[in-house]
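> call design_seq(struct)
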């Protein structure tokens, strides 16, 4: 498992946490949200990124935490 932090523009509502699976959403003072989650493989990561695309979230960054 690999832990990722994905940052998007805007403050995502907490209900997206359940929709995307078990993940943590943090809101930042700069108007962005970070999503922290563990993924098993690249396919799962791409699924999460596709879901963010589907809700029109603007991607700011993706980084590996572990």
């Amino acid at each position: 498992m690999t832990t990722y932090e994905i940052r998007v523009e805007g403050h995502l509502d907490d209900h997206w946490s359940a929709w995307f699976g078990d993940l943590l959403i943090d809101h930042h003072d700069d108007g962005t949200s970070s999503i922290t989650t563990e993924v098993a493989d690249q396919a799962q990561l791409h699924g999460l990124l596709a879901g963010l695309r589907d809700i029109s979230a603007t991607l700011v960054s993706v980084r590996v935490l572990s």
